[in-house]
């Protein structure tokens, strides 16, 4: 059975680039490759660029939790969990 995955990316401070930070872009690339290697279907990619990790009051995180609670997601992938 293929798992439906949420890919979650977060960076607490801007890396001074315009638009999406390069760290977020790199996280997305790594997580997409990992999901493909594991044969997971990517339900969505959730991003909180520039948000503190000190609490869960982040828009991307809240949206991801809502999708988990709705039963759309069976696994969450975060780059730091994999030590990549």
**What is the general shape?**
flat
Describe the largest sheet.
3 strands, parallel
Q: How much of the polypeptide forms β-strand, as a percent range?
A: 25-35%
Structure summary, number of beta strands: 3
Order of helices and strands: EHEHEH
Radius of gyration: 13 Å
Q: For this structure, what is the CATH homologous superfamily?
A: Resolvase, N-terminal catalytic domain
Descriptive labels:
84 residues; alpha/beta; Rossmann fold; 3-stranded parallel beta sheet; 3 strands; 25% strand
Describe the structure.
The protein has three helices and three strands. The protein has 84 residues and is an alpha/beta fold. The chain has a three-stranded parallel sheet, sandwiched between helices. Helix 1 links the parallel strand 1 and strand 2. The model has no long low-confidence stretch (mean pLDDT 85).
């Amino acid at each position: 059975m293929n798992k439906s995955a949420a890919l979650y990316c977060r960076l607490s401070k801007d890396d001074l680039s315009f638009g999406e930070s390069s760290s977020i872009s790199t996280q997305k690339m790594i997580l997409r490759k990992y999901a493909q290697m594991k044969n997971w279907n990517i339900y969505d990619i959730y991003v909180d660029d520039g948000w503190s990790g000190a609490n869960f009051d982040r828009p991307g995180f809240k949206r991801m939790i809502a999708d988990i609670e709705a039963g759309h997601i069976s696994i969450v992938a975060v780059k730091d969990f994999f030590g990549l």
